[in-house]
Design a protein that fits this description.
It is built from six helices and 21 strands. The protein is 21% helix and 34% strand. Strands 2-3-9-4-5 form a five-stranded mixed β-sheet, covered by helices on one side. The structure holds zinc ion.
């Protein structure tokens, strides 16, 4: 048992509404108290599934959870906020096919949830016992056994505004609300044009994404190296699918939802850790 992984419980339903970035439709998410020890569940239109790696149905442009009949896209920023509070017992009810994109960061979720939380007991982390690696020649995620939890993210884009970026986040020692939560979704200008042409990212706008142009960013950065901080936020959100905090050192290089979720799946399938 690790006293420094303190859980939180939500005391009343918290409703958050807004546009879905992929569909452009108005969506509403309500986070409600769950059963202590019952885990996190998601519900849409009468269908319900556990918020675990087994419910991942797509990872192409965002993390999508669901079952054979219903699905909910863009869950990662909300899940990152829940992970930051060690809030693992709750019900997430969704109207519409997505979690609202809001400003493209996790900060609105943190701010909406925080006043409605009370401290719970310690939560047992998943303690990694053997190294686990996923990736290919350009993207990798390596998780190593460690006494603490530490996420290191790096990326390199041959782009005048990006280049090499890195961030380290230690969930037990640093403030998610200060270090990662404000970092917005980013997209390269060429990527935005391609998405528009394909009819994708219909809800995408300069209010919910940081567009990277060769001459500069579409709006002032909230934090230095904001793009890589957002990637680390996404990683924390995808690691929530373990159902508990991860005690390991994670090194991610230009990865994404596919590799983040593959890492979680591999850790669980190979049983390379134990519940601390
Ligand atoms: Zn994201």
């Amino acid at each position: 048992m690790h006293a420094n992984w303190l859980s939180h419980q939500i005391t009343r339903p918290v409703e958050i509404g807004g546009i879905g970035v992929h569909s452009g439709e108005h969506c509403v998410v309500t986070v409600k108290p769950g059963i202590p020890g019952g885990g996190c569940w998601m519900e849409r239109a009468g269908e319900r599934w556990p918020v675990t790696i087994d419910s991942v149905v797509d990872v192409e442009r965002c993390t999508v959870l669901g079952n054979a009949r219903q699905r909910v896209a863009t869950v990662e920023h909300l899940l990152a906020a829940l992970a930051s509070f060690n809030l693992y017992d709750c019900e997430i009810e969704v109207q519409g096919g997505e979690i609202p994109i809001l400003d493209g960061s996790a900060l609105p979720f943190v701010e909406a949830l925080r006043p409605n939380l009370v401290a719970g007991g310690p939560v047992c982390p998943y303690v990694l016992e053997q190294p686990v690696w996923v990736g290919n020649e350009s993207s990798q995620v390596l998780a190593l056994p460690s006494d603490t939890s530490r996420l290191h993210y790096s990326l390199y884009y041959p782009h005048p505004q990006l280049g090499y970026q890195e961030v380290t986040f230690a969930p037990q020692q640093q403030s998610f609300a200060d270090e990662l939560a404000p970092a917005r979704t980013f997209a390269l200008e060429q990527e935005v044009e391609w998405l528009r042409a394909k009819g994708l990212a219909r809800g995408g706008s300069l209010d919910n994404a940081l567009v990277v142009r060769s001459e500069g960013f579409s709006s002032p950065l909230r934090l230095p190296m904001e793009p890589v901080r957002h990637k680390c936020l996404d990683l924390l959100g995808d690691l929530y699918l373990l159902g508990r905090p991860l005690q390991a050192q994670v090194l991610a290089v230009k990865a994404g939802h596919r590799w983040h979720t593959d890492l979680v799946r591999k850790m669980q399938q190979e049983v390379v850790g134990h519940v601390g």
